[in-house]
Inverse folding.
């Protein structure tokens, strides 16, 4: 009788422990499933084909509580390889070749460079790698931009996806070639 009671207690303990671990795993999985909301204002651009391409995608901008803006860009239907990606001065993608978006967003009057260089255009996002399936994803943080109204705001600008790799040095555009897609930041 004593052996049966010990076995029953051990089994009950094992079931309780398994249930507790299972609940902890569910809590852990659900807490990482969706990121915490942004601390400040957010903006978004829907990127549409230009220059006869089929390239499309989206970009999001979120002010961080620690400063700077978190930028996330997703591209689809693009030619595989490395392509320049920039924020352009004018929020106008009406021209068939996106030339209506103007030049790179550069409120500080700085030279063109890479996104990790201290001296750069505010719109220098560098390059995005497009995989063989035509998709690419880029995430970065910029300390030169805001979403809130002001001279460095992304709102009313345009995200432009280029045909070639940005060399991060040629002035003023990085020799990134034509504009294959464009989206106004709202």
């Amino acid at each position: 009788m004593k052996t049966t009671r010990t076995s029953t207690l051990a089994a009950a303990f094992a079931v309780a422990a398994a249930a507790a671990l299972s609940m902890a795993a569910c809590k852990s999985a659900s807490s990482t499933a969706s990121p915490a909301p942004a601390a400040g204002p957010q903006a978004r651009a829907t990127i549409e084909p230009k220059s006869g391409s089929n390239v499309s995608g989206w970009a999001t901008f979120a002010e961080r509580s620690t400063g700077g803006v978190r930028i996330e860009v997703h591209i689809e239907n693009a030619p595989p390889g490395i392509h320049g990606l920039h924020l352009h001065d004018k929020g106008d993608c009406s021209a068939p070749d996106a030339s209506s978006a103007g030049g790179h967003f550069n409120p500080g009057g700085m030279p063109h460079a890479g996104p990790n260089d201290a001296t750069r255009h505010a719109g220098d996002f560098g390059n995005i790698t497009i995989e063989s399936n035509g998709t690419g994803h880029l995430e970065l943080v910029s300390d030169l931009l805001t979403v809130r109204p002001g001279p460095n705001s992304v709102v009313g600008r345009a995200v432009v996806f280029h045909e070639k790799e940005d060399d991060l040095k040629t002035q003023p555009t990085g020799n990134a070639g034509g504009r294959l897609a464009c989206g106004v930041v709202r």
Q: What stands out?
A: The radius of gyration is 24 Å.
